[in-house]
Amino acid sequence: MRESLIFDLSSPGRRACSLPAFDAPAKPLTELVPQDCLRQHDADLPEVSEIDVVRHVTRLSQINFSVDTHFYPLGSCTMKYNPKINDRIASLPGFANIHPYQPASTTQGALAAFELLEQTLCAITGMDAFTLQPAAGAHGELTGLLLIRAYHTARGNPRRKVIVPDSAHGTNPSSAHLAGYHVVTVPSNNRGEVDLEKFRAVLDDEVAAVMLTNPSTHGVFETNILEIAAMAHKAGALLYYDGANLNALVGLARPGDMGFDVVHLNVHKTFSTPHGGGGPGAGPVGVKKALEPFLPVPRLKIVEREALSIERKNADASRFTLHAPRLAWDYDRPQTIGKMRSFYGSTGVLIRALTYILAHGDEGMRRVSEVAIINANYIKAKLKDLYDDPFPQACMHEIVFSARLQKKQGSSARDIAKRLLDFGFHAPTIYFPMTVPEALMIEPTETESRETLDRFIAAMRQIAEEITRNAETLHNAPFTMPVTRVDEVKAARELDVNFVKRDA
Amino acid sequence: MNVPSDLKYTESHEWVKLGKNNETATIGLTDFAQEELTDIVYLDLPKVGDEIEAGTECAVVESVKAASDIYAPLSGKVTEVNQAVLDDPAIVNEDAFGKGWLFKIKLADPVELDELLSDSDYEEILSEKESQDEDEEEEK
Predict the structure, then answer these.
(1) pTM: predicted TM-score of the whole model, two decimal places
(2) ipTM value of the model?
(3) Where exactly are the structural domains of chain A?
(4) Rounded-to-integer distance, Cα B59 and Cα B43, Å
């Protein structure tokens, strides 16, 4: 059933609530607001009852695909399940009901959680210090690049260039550009890794940073990472780690040990916080010691540790030794790049990430990455006879297929993605990375059972057969969704995002 | 593949049509480029008066599939921009070598012309690309 627009549910004069009579002195609007700031016509708003709104929005949410309702193998996005305990802990009044303007002496619990998260992220990534301030992954990238610029500037030359591989996330070159750098692209070799010779050719003493993600967006481990790091450092450049693919490495390998100097993490990917959709996000940034002085203010500072240590030794609680450091905000950091966001970041999101890490523990976090890798390789092994698999080696947490064999038969990656919806699966990422023609980038994540993966594999195999039999039929997929194939070209060319009421 | 012989080309799939005495040039995307991109939905072109530098990105093309940079084949000052393709980017898909031209420049350095590819050079690049694809298939 097609859901109506809320405007179509509108009836003149219908209201969701009745307001009490106005009991304050009233003045006409024209006396309070300058004439040129006033609307010429009333706003076109739908006039509906509360139950109309609730039913409309609930129905829309039921039509939607989400991690809570469907398998969501969107490559490079790590759409893993968000455990409900995350929400429960973040809703505790000590986190949910505090205000950033409260004195730090009254929010010590939340500050201790931040401090613990900083230390934990340092341990996971092998970095020396973390800021939790950036509001999202790409914002973390910009923060990282501004740190790199500050580092080089302090040494006398901010440098001009940033190197990114041709498979990079689009945000990498964008962030480098925003930070004032010229972007140089380095091609990949036939294993999907950085081409070392071509990398050497573009590396010079004007390169400020090399931005990589490991595993790369081809879903493969960058085996020459130590050599790349040595080459970059020899040229005086810093190595930047895009944490988008960290879900493959937790507990197995650390960016800091590979030679990375700056990392950003996407807590909505690796650490199971909700994907933004415009809501709050967090993109913590970690650095090695040499870059610590430049981190955004404020920094968390331990004022006293020993003085507040509480040890309970009575019979009931003898197991607990509570070391409660007293924490404060430190703004006295002369080399800081300044503030990247109001206050100290998205508290509710950061608490969810910390909850996830503590709920799993170090062994559990390693299992997360191991199972994510096993699940992706399981899909690779079960589908590579039907879908072209461009890279020979085992993949990491995601697998990139090329639908070029299907394209030759008359169906595209887009057709396959649309047809998958009919089987109750969200589409994988398509046409990215751009280095792989007709790319289908599948990331199952560790949260999916073998039964779910088998159903997905069966659907992909059936689709390949349908294409061999008659590729034409897929051109109008999906067939069973409330909205079937939409005209994306028309939608993009005739962009129309405002509702304008047309007289009947 | 359509590769007109009166144009010059770049490896990054732009075409160049030289004006009188090689003082001006019209620049566009090749038929191969528009086919790879599929339906183009948006173009971000330089403005009249902008200085562009050969080999650097000077414009952006967006299709339903991808957003890509367009590289300046030559250095110079932009003298005219094709308003018609800004209004209706589909023209580039329909007529890449004709009505789908993007912008015109006044050349800064005619020596750069030596760097451009002839139609036969460009055709060779396209056929190499094709045979590469086929080789890969045979390996499987």
Answers:
(1) 0.87
(2) 0.73
(3) 6-63, 126-297+327-357, 298-326, 363-493
(4) 8
